[in-house]
Specification:
By secondary structure, the chain is mostly helical. It is about 90% helix and about 0% strand.
Length: about 500
């Protein structure tokens, strides 16, 4: 019985990672096409400029949205699970009312701070008007965040997936022609347009499910104070995270040139975003399951360890292939002008192994409702990131910056693990340690091979190691999840159905 339960647990994790991972893959493929056009039309300077605008706008958004996109999910989910339609409808109106307030706050803050943002983000002071024109992005993002929280809380996962796909398709179709005709001058209008498209797609769905209703009466808004207090930790963590990225990019822009920001951003996007799509797919299912078991020590540890196992086993073969074909991927995703980012991107791939273990651990304080601990650990990581990336870039350029990110991730993992061990009684399983040592060792060997000038090492040995990583993961997943049996049963059912027809 226990074995069957274990198998079901692994299959559950695989099922939901596959479901949301499929959407992520589709989004990435569309994003690849868009980024390719953007890189070709704007070049490293344009990509760097867009990166600085995006980082700044994200910082303002994270500073003023009061974490509604996260905290509202938890509040509304309770109403939905209790089948209390009246309270759910009322609380949705509360979320929308607060979303409109924080949207206006973000708009005003961005306009008021635009001279400072221009002065400290760029080495020359000439972008105040750009930041004023970008202020609607902050408001539109806040409104969309509230509506997306509503859809998540009422389990409209298929609609969320559709919105995600249509949103990135809209960004491709609408913004690429602007870049083609107007070049860098189209960056600001395109960012506003993308934020508007996301909101429009979201409200078309959410308003149909729950008609629009808001109220700004003090008593009515008071119902949302619990949600606002819960989101405060997310706000501070988001501010620190966005601020850290902004400081890094501004530093690179001031001590080097804006092209370096473009190289840094392209390497970061390739690994932390594209290769990290499994992490994004993981989060939707993992956090609710972990929260439901936060008072059961053994079950809690089991959920965390199994999530790490499956995530590590799934992403490790992809990371080895990513290392092997990274030069080709840079040319495909961007252009050969971005090859200076290769050395940094290679180091960041190794950092992803540690992130596969660290990320499930970082959800433990949130599942326990310990927002102060979550904020403490996130703050520590952001400080480490800024210091080590600046030190790394100063000593070794972009390659050194990559080493800085990897070192910050490893040190943060040590702190998070020790904190979870001592405060929550978390214990790392022996199987997690085994798979981590095995796959990280393979990853390091592939890293050394692809940086070799010897073609036989570069392609022959590295390809063999990729096969070893893939076969190892498949064999473990097959034994733990009954994956092979599940596939056979699915094929058999389809065959029987067709035979009957």
């Amino acid at each position: 019985m226990k074995k069957a339960s274990n198998t079901d647990s692994y299959m559950h994790i695989l099922k939901y990672i596959s479901l949301f991972g499929g959407v992520q893959v589709l989004n990435v493929l569309i994003g690849i096409v868009r980024n390719k056009f953007v890189a070709m039309l704007l070049g490293p300077q344009g990509v760097g400029l867009m990166s600085l605008f995006n980082s700044t706008i994200k910082l303002i958004s994270d500073s003023t949205n009061f974490g509604i996109s996260m905290s509202a999910v938890r509040n509304l989910s309770e109403d939905y699970d209790q089948n209390d339609e009246a309270k759910l409808t009322d609380d949705i109106a509360v979320v929308r009312s607060w979303s409109m307030l924080v949207a206006m706050l973000g708009l005003v803050v961005c306009i008021v701070l635009s001279p400072l943002l221009s002065r400290y983000t760029f080495s020359w002071d000439g972008h105040t008007l750009h930041f004023i024109l970008l202020s609607p992005c902050v408001a539109l993002t806040a409104l969309a965040g509230g509506e997306l929280a509503i859809l998540k809380a009422v389990r409209q996962l298929r609609l969320l997936a559709a919105i995600s796909v249509y949103n990135i398709l809209g960004a491709l179709v609408l913004t690429v022609p602007l870049y083609y005709f107007f070049g860098n001058a189209a960056i600001v209008p395109s960012l506003v347009l993308m934020a508007f498209v996301q909101l429009l797609l979201t409200i078309v769905v959410s308003y149909r499910l729950y008609p629009f209703r808001v109220s700004f009466q003090r008593v009515f808004l008071g119902k949302g104070w619990g949600m606002i207090r819960l989101g405060t930790a997310f706000v501070f963590a988001g501010v620190l995270g966005s601020g850290a990225e902004l400081v890094i990019r501004s530093y690179l822009n001031n001590v080097a040139e804006i092209a370096s920001v473009g190289f840094y951003n392209s390497a970061y996007m390739m690994t932390m975003v594209y290769a990290g799509m499994i992490f994004s797919a993981m989060e939707t299912d993992y956090f609710p399951r972990l929260s439901g078991a936060n008072n059961l020590t053994f079950t809690f540890n089991q959920i965390v360890n199994r999530q790490i196992e499956v995530t590590l086993l799934l992403i490790s073969p992809l990371l080895t292939l990513f290392l092997l074909f990274q030069p080709q991927l840079i040319c495909l995703l961007y252009s050969d002008k971005f090859l200076p980012a290769l050395s940094m991107a290679q180091v960041l791939v190794l950092a992803m192994y540690v992130r596969a273990i660290r990320l499930p651990l970082e959800y433990i304080p949130l599942a326990k409702g310990d927002s102060k601990s979550y904020l403490l650990l996130e703050s520590l990581y952001d400080v480490l990131l800024v210091l080590l990336v600046i030190l790394g870039f100063w000593q070794g350029g972009l390659f050194g910056a990559g080493l800085g990110i990897a070192a910050a991730g490893f040190l943060n993992f040590v702190f998070v693990f020790v904190y979870a061990y001592s405060r929550y009684g978390y214990r790392l399983s022996s199987s997690v340690m085994l798979y981590a040592v095995l796959h990280l060792s393979i990853g390091v060997l592939v890293f050394l091979c692809v940086r070799s000038d010897n073609d036989w090492m570069r392609w022959g040995v590295a390809s063999l190691l990729c096969m070893v990583s893939t076969i190892t993961s498949l064999r473990v997943l097959k034994s733990k999840s009954g994956l092979w049996k599940s596939l056979i049963d699915k094929v058999r059912r389809k065959f029987i159905r067709h035979a009957k027809d």
